[in-house]
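Cross-check.
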Amino acid sequence: MTNTAVPTGTPAAFDTDSTATAPAAVGTGNGRGTGLGPGPDAPIGAGRSGRHQLDDWRPEDPAFWRSTGAPIARRNLIVSIASEHIGFSVWSLWSVMVLFLGPEYGIDPAGKFMLTAVPTALGSVLRLPYTLAVAKFGGRNWTIVSACLLLLPAVPMAILIEPGVSYGTLLVLACLAGVGGGNFASSMANINLFYPQRLKGWALGLNAGGGNIGVAAVQLVGLAVLATAGAAYPRLVPAVYLPLIVLAALASARYMDNIRGVRNEKGAMREAARDPHTWIMSLLYIGTFGSFIGFGFAFGQVLQVQFKEQFATPIDAAYLTFLGPLVGSLIRPVGGWLADRFGGSRVTLVNFAAMAAGAGLVYFASRERSLPLYLIGFIGLFVFSGIGNGSTYKMIPAIFRAKATLAVSAGTLDAAAAERRAWRLSGALIGIAGAVGAFGGVLVNIAFRQSFLTYQTADAAYLAFIAWYAVCLVITWVVYLRPSRHRLTGV
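Predicted model, tokenized:
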């Protein structure tokens, strides 16, 4: 098994409930892992069996890493970032496309929020199977396949979107865009295999950040199309990505590698699902990542609906929509750094208070029709959701380290077994939380939709967000910070 990136606060390879035995040719020999990787006690093999097949992969061996491993890992990381970035952009296409859907399309705000909710839903559902596909098919092979799958939404969108297209067709196209949401999980699982433990945080942080910025990038593409061709040509936005998708698939085929012996370990996902902390952290991640991806999809349309006078045309909104996802992506590592310095649960607690305050400011600004305050509050929500993404992920390994320490003290497990169990369950929890958290983006868009349907404003949605952040704050305090004999130390 390979090491996870759990201590870095970024998603790593996840465990599963299926088994594929690992050949003895590959291994790190350290006994830690998420269940997605080479066998833990395998002897080291030698050489490649094919041009893109790594039979000898020892990232924890300093000599091997310096002479052979680092250049190979760097090459795979660069292509992985590019492919994942395009996947995130395709996933987020409808955050831009709805800005083009003017009166001639006959779609009200509630209908537009449904168009941004359905790709978020499919993307969240695909995260776990995409992760498992790395072990099943090989990291390089699956990166090629997942890149090619991005053509499924992009090609028909570039052909079919024009006035007169039915709303049902648009819903199908929006749902297909969800395939881009799975690319993040498989990309992170694959890159986790290439780097030694001491560099996983750096590598996975770059991989995650490069992907998340795809949300802002597609909005800049939309802005460029609006500024040059106008709102009458929405098909140009997905058309821009067609050659990029093909290039990503070709680059993956040319420059990436499969690591022989990667496997999905039996039972860790089931075991993690029985642990209450898995579902507690999943709820907290709905509040952080769910907010980030949900607001990223909805920000542009909310501006157009709430402030029609200032954002009379799509290009007016497009000038601002990329800012939130951009700062939220760039600030994420700060959350991990703060969690290292002050503790993940403390940072998460303060962060949810800040998110509630940000949502409160947005609500006040909406009632008062104050655009400057509205923008400050919304950008604040992006900033704090990014910080929360980092801090909540830092809590996950700390939870299982604390439980391992208790097990060793009680004599129920020896130190090595307790450490291995902690790493396995941390990886499995990250897999579950990543999928559940992404579904939070669906809830954000559904909240906006229902608010506009019922009250013709987004005010009810803002109140729901404030209430949810308050619930997350209370959960964080009661479970991880409230003084009691059951409190886990160091979380």
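The first strand starts at residue 36 and ends at 37. The first helix runs from residue 62 to 91. Passed to J.P. for a second look.
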